[in-house]
Amino acid sequence: MVSHSELRKLFCSADAVCFDVDSTVIREEGIDELAKICGVADAVSEMTKRAMGGAVPFRAALSERLALIQPSREQVQRLIAEHPPHLTPGIRELVSRLHERNVQVFLISGGFRSIVEHVASKLNIPSTNVFANRLKFYFNGEYAGFDETQPTADSGGKGKVIKLLKEKFHFKRIVMIGDGATDLEACPPADVFIGFGGNVIRQQVKENAKWYITDFVELLGALEE
Q: Transmembrane among the record's keywords (predicted)?
């Protein structure tokens, strides 16, 4: 069993840190916000809870929710313009500090690329460091499905992305930080998993994470030691 002080050392010596986005880097669940704009909030929110708790295979949950929402290109753009995601307190400082230390920061999300890229731009994270699901639209802007070839469209997809990053960049130590079951599953191949409960606490993650935090200040503090 790795001690807490060893976990802190591993985090401080990481050459890459991967963050989940919904309910971790931002306060909301992007898919639930999209459902609000499309008028199907309650049904979708219930499905999201089940998916994040690990009760339903991720792809099935994603497909089911999108079939209900049917978001058009215009509705996605309206969401970003009128209800932009709120950054979780402390994340801007944490990402900035990691960048100062020459640590590569990635966003790996089961959410949607157009929303996640908007978040990445606020944190000075290049879009090449974003892994998320792509929505597809017909030429008239109507919903046409999602790109099922993206690794993030599947359960275990975040782990696949981390494995890919290790192969491509030869990172020695990757840390995954997130609130949900799909984040916990990504370690291994991630070397360390840090559970985040600052926006929502998912019991399964809290019970199984060796290091669980509810405020990014704790990680900033570890970097200053």
A: no
Residue bearing the bigger pLDDT, 9 or 42: 42
pTM of the model: 0.86
- Extract long-range pairs of 22-25: CB within 8 Å, 24+ residues apart: 22/109, 22/110, 22/111, 22/179, 23/52, 23/179, 23/180, 23/196, 23/199, 23/200, 24/88, 24/177, 24/178, 24/179, 24/183, 24/196, 24/198, 24/199, 25/87, 25/88, 25/91, 25/107, 25/119, 25/123
Helix axes 30-37, 58-69, angle to 10 degrees: 20
Per the structure, how many domains does the chain have? Answer: 1
Q: Residues 35, 39, 42, 44: is their CA dihedral positive or negative?
A: negative
Q: How far is CA 210 from CA 5, 107, 164, 171, 184, in A?
A: 11, 21, 24, 22, 10
Residue 106: per-residue pLDDT: 94
Query: Cα–Cα distance between 189 and 217 in angstroms, integer?
Result: 26
CATH classification at residue 118:
3.40.50.1000
Domain membership of residue 50 (yes or no) is: no
Q: Is residue 39 part of a domain?
A: no
By annotation, the residues acting in catalysis are 20, 22
Looking at residue 125, its pLDDT comes to: 93
